[in-house]
Amino acid sequence: MADIAYTIHGAPSARAPLLLTHGFGASQAMWAPNLDALSRERQVLTWDLPGHGASAHAGAGELSHDGCIAEMLKLLDRLGAERAVIGGMSLGGYLSLLFCARHPERVVALLLVDTGPGFRDDSAREAWNSWVVGLADDLEARGLDALRSGPEAEAAEHAGGAVALAAAARAILTQRDEEAFASLGAIAVPTLVVVGADDDPFLASAEAMARRIPGARKLTLQNAGHAANMDQPAAFDQAVGEFLKEL
Prior knowledge:
globular; seven-stranded mixed β-sheet; Rossmann fold; alpha/beta
């Protein structure tokens, strides 16, 4: 935990806390537009994935999916929370699905933002991983300019620079198997799927998750892209707030 940067927002409450995980190339700063609203009635914990933000050292925690899940468990323990709402955007949403698959007893609800469950098809997964390796190579060659533009990336300051992000890409942006996708039908907690209407690469993924997760709801935010929570914070906060109140 010493190398992992995190922030606790709001006062302790009887309500289950909310753990938010950002996407690749972003940092916990991407949740800033939403924290006032989301932390009024419960604690919210945001953190920087290894190699991102102030978690500067690429090896902060074990640099793997397993390592990220282990860090998430430690963060919940830091809050003294047996269970929590687990939420994430993009890579953070994928990790949230893995967390729920492996530790369902710790999950009260899921919030999945502009994300997907990975690939069932081996060739599609290989193509994704090939793209990720190319991105990592590009980060090492051109620095942070290799990151896709977007408000979540623009809000982030990466102490470890592009080298740490490249290592994180190879270790945690790549995918190993269909574990997350295969878990969708077994999810037994309330789930809200949020996607920006202009986030074309993730529209089909959002639909697939909403269709396969029992009882899941899907919200498409108009005039929003890959960081829907930042593009339309008021609409995002209202929808998430209503979802959380029902828990």
